[in-house]
Amino acid sequence: MRRSTNWWFFREHMQLSLISGALQCDCAVCCRRKDEPPLIKGWIPFLGKGLEFGKDAYKFLDKHKRKHGDIFTVQMAGKYMTFVLDPLLYPYIIKHGRQLDFHEFSNKVAPITFGYPPVHSKLHPGLKEQIQRSFKLLQGESLTLLTESMMGNLMLVFRQDHLGHSDWMSGSMYQFCLSVMFEATLLTMFGCVSSARRHGGVRALRDDFVKFDDKFPLLIAQVPICLLRGTRAIRKKLINYFLPDRILKEVSESFTQINNTLSPLSAHHFAMLWASVGNTVPATFWAMYYLLSHPEALQAVRQEIQEVLSLSGVEFSNDTDVKLHREQLDKPTTSSESTINESFRLSSASMNIRVAQEDFSLQLGESRSVAVRKGDIIAMYPQIMHLDPEIYEEPKKFRFDRYVHNGAEKTDFYKDDQKLKYYLMPFGSGSSMCPGRYFAMNEIKQFLSLLLLYFDLQLEDGQSRAELDPSRAGLGILLPSADVRFRYRLRVV
Length: 493
Ligand code: HEM
Ligand SMILES: *[C@@H]1O[C@H](CO)[C@@H](O)[C@H](O)[C@H]1NC(C)=O
Ligand SMILES: *[C@@H]1O[C@H](CO)[C@@H](O)[C@H](O)[C@H]1NC(C)=O
Ligand SMILES: *[C@@H]1O[C@H](CO)[C@@H](O)[C@H](O)[C@H]1NC(C)=O
What we know:
Layout: H1 5-18, E1 39-40, H2 50-55, H3 57-68, E2 71-76, E3 79-84, H4 90-94, E4 100-101, H5 103-114, H6 127-136, H7 140-161, E5 169-172, H8 173-190, H9 195-220, H10 231-241, H11 253-261, H12 266-278, H13 280-293, H14 295-311, H15 326-329, H16 335-347, E6 348-350, E7 352-356, E8 360-363, E9 369-372, E10 377-380, H17 382-386, E11 404-405, E12 408-409, E13 414-415, E14 418-419, H18 437-454, E15 455-459, E16 468-469, E17 475-477, E18 479-480, E19 485-490
Helix pairs in contact: 7-8, 7-18, 8-12, 8-13, 9-10, 10-12, 13-14, 13-16, 13-18
Bound molecules: protoporphyrin IX containing FE (HEM) and 2-acetamido-2-deoxy-beta-D-glucopyranose (3 copies).
One 2-acetamido-2-deoxy-beta-D-glucopyranose binds near residues 337, 341, 403, 424 and 426.
């Protein structure tokens, strides 16, 4: 949906050089050491399979899984990536600390993407520790503050933009989620430009953010920023929003903490902004979309929210602000959490990466092992598991109650008759798990609560189903390939 001409040009151009799949030597057995998985090589040695993978990673991996089994190595953009696709083997990788490192990869890629110095840079001693500490502010005690603040800001944005009319209004769903979540998150995490100018200021920042975000997959793929016309300037502009004397006039409490903990480098604030909305916005979109296209789910979730509120003795009306506290949001045994997890399952396409620190034999259970060379990447790709019909019956179908059973959270999912330790992984795994995951879950619940309490909602007629745009595969929640129109009207309460 948000493709730029640059990217098309780049991709089409490169594809021309690849010419045709027929010329590819698909399974090179030569030069493989004992116990090394089958190797899938590209025609052009350096680019390897990178472009085909970039086009539709799920399709690519699924195809090779059928041909080579659950473990194979792909030569991609000059790297060897060994995919392990059987979720029963995930625990062996996730708990394998010493020889498989995550941070080597992120420490290299994140600074290049967001424009900050390498985390081990001598110029900024202690940077790495500061970043780690800033992640802690998204959890534990601080999460209570963050969650309360988000509630207030979501309410504020709903009032300011959406609660004024009693007629049916019509909107584009992705744009709706983007504008609400972006502004509320910005206010919560960073505070913002002074109120009078807030609206225009937020919109300008958001538009620049979207432009940068369009190029994000390329930057992560380490395409040099100088090849992406205009991107460096936009990134500079974005980073400058976070210069201490600019945007942060009216500073939220959470931000002061982040500012004090994290290095004052504005680029870090910008990276944090990306992390905090880059996945949340599409995740919010899919949850909303699936609810609107499944009225029985919408009804169940709305009823549940109303019960939570009435239990707390709040009489809901259109004049009072809704407040849902952390304890009310924390319960996993609910239809709303199951709904959100089900929409994660259907839309998440993150890749979990580890880098081999030495040549060694990776033990995968009692009878299996694969030889790994230093510098190789080991990758898990949970989307394959999320859409596995053996684990999830009718995997392409949205079932809002997939993760609840008899009023309790459902945690037993099986493959080959064995219970899976990992069956849903939208937030990564082990040492690299998303530090914002609790906050993300809370804010999406808060958003859905306000939406369902205040509005009657309908999809507009005559639209085709929303499809996933695969171009961001590997990076988190996929975007829809086209926006969806919907109607909403204040509920009479
Ligand atoms: C639905 C929403 C979200 C999803 C699906 C998501 C997913 C992810 C994933 C997959 C990773 C990489 C983990 C890995 O490589 O194993 C990650 C990292 C990260 N996320 Fe999230 N995230 C979400 C929301 C948030 C929010 C709201 C924040 C902050 C407020 C946040 C902050 C971060 C940070 C700082 C990292 C980097 C961690 C590191 O480098 O160790 N995320 N997220
Ligand atoms: C953030 O940190 C910078 C550098 O230490 C400081 O100049 C600035 O006043 C701080 N901003 C806030 C709002 O605390
Ligand atoms: C709440 O609803 C009542 C009755 O429909 C209406 O008169 C009032 O203006 C509404 N208040 C707000 C803030 O929309
Ligand atoms: C939803 O998923 C999260 C992690 O992804 C998990 O912690 C939580 O228990 C799940 N809740 C339900 C109801 O499945």
